[in-house]
Amino acid sequence: MLEEDMEVAIKVVVVGNGAVGKSSMIQRYCKGVFTKDYKKTIGVDFLERQILVNDEDVRLMLWDTAGQEEFDAITKAYYRGAQACVLVFSTTDRDSFEAISSWWEKVEVEVGDIPTVLVQNKIDLLDETWTVIQDLCEEAEGLAKKLKLRFYRTSVKEDLNVNEVFKYLADKYLQRL
Ligand code: GDP
Question: Which transformation does this protein catalyse, written as a reaction (predicted)?
Fold first, then answer.
């Protein structure tokens, strides 16, 4: 049991290849908006949102890589003190899925074993290309099992499952306290 009035703050890192929707996810969750031309250079390290989980006030600080992943130049400061992680790939980008294991390893090396979820974003783009990416969807489920990670399919655009991802992480984090 936590002390009364004690607020829990969790640093969450959101990692994955460029253009999978990481910044959009952070914007969506913290500001409730989706913009196609969102600029990454917003000049802040993270956005935050406060939620109530099992009667505890939890402040989630969502850190944006700000495009550093494009140059394989994510700084140690980005990972430092991270307490939860979202691994994101895109439904329309197989390379971004292939890169997940190496992102996962990087996080493990930098911060160890922290509550982590695997997220397949842009699920709204499934429809007509379904047969093409069916394999990818199945493989993703397999990978999540192998890495023992909770798996979510999201559409940041349509605000599908985004809240669930962060609620799960906050819950998982609280369980470990
Ligand atoms: P990041 O580089 O991983 O931070 O990716 P961005 O957040 O910049 O998103 C890359 C592009 O994908 C932008 O044009 C977004 O509008 C778009 N995008 C992000 N999430 C979704 C989604 O769920 N569905 C669709 N259709 N597009 C998305």
Answer: GTP + H2O = GDP + phosphate + H(+)
CA distance 11 to 62: 6
Q: For a pocket test of ligand 1, which of 17, 24, 72 has the largest count of ligand atoms closer than 8 A to its C-beta?
A: 24
pTM: 0.93
Kind plus residue range of the DSSP H or E element containing 48: strand 46-53
- C-alpha closest to that of 121 among 20, 11, 9, 8: 20
Q: Are 63 and 25 in contact (CB under 8 A)?
A: no
How far is residue 104's CA from residue 88's CA, in Å, rounded to a whole number? 10
Whether ipTM tops 0.95, in short, is yes
Residue range 46-55, pLDDT digits in tens: 999 999 999 9
Query: Partners of 155 in the beta sheet?
Result: 160
The position carrying tokens 């979202």 is: 86
Beta bridge partners of 150: 117
